[in-house]
Design brief:
This protein is α/β, with parallel strands linked by helices and 217 residues long. The strands form two sheets. A five-stranded mixed sheet has the order 3-2-4-5-6. Strands 1-7 form a two-stranded antiparallel ribbon.
Length: 217
Amino acid sequence: MHIGRRLLLCFGLVTLPWLSAGCILVGAAAATMPPPTIEAQYSNLAGQTVAVMVWADRDIRVDWPSLQLDLATAIQNRLMQHTAKGKALAGARFVYSPQSMDDYQQDHPEAEFAPIESTAVRLGVSRLIYVEVEDFSTRTDVAGEMFLGRISATLKVVEVDGGRGSVAFEQRDLTCTFPPRAPKEGTLRGSDALMYRGVLQVLAERIQNQFVPHEMG
């Protein structure tokens, strides 16, 4: 009995370093593995004619008159990079420039009050990516001298088929901040222009990720 216990103890002492080394190797392998891929939330843009339209509340436009154009440009530029790679946007054609869409909104103020489905039909596209900006700021409410870019929006995709439009995808409460890890009180380092550009790019990337597979980050 005692001999058997001694043999088991010796075997355990011999194998313990190998077990520890194995755990280290498994941990190292896990650390080098690529992060998991998140699939697109909406995957019906490939081969479609697409337009991007951004609408912002009138009070926001008073302070930031180019926000609609700038955000639409950031979104469309990101998505167009994927039309020649991968399957998500393969063959998708963006038939209007962001400037053309902004001109359309300026020339047709009545479109602001029309259902977005009917606007999509009038544009003559098969897919309309529509973003409603509900809140925007470059400073915190805590103190006027503290910078923090913040934007909240709703994303919709309108599908047009047979002369009729319908909202096929909707994502509410898309809220982004810039700098991404800044405290809620904001930061003294920065400027309104930096917060403006930064938070628009953060939202544009988040919207892009609704349509293309991407790594978890």
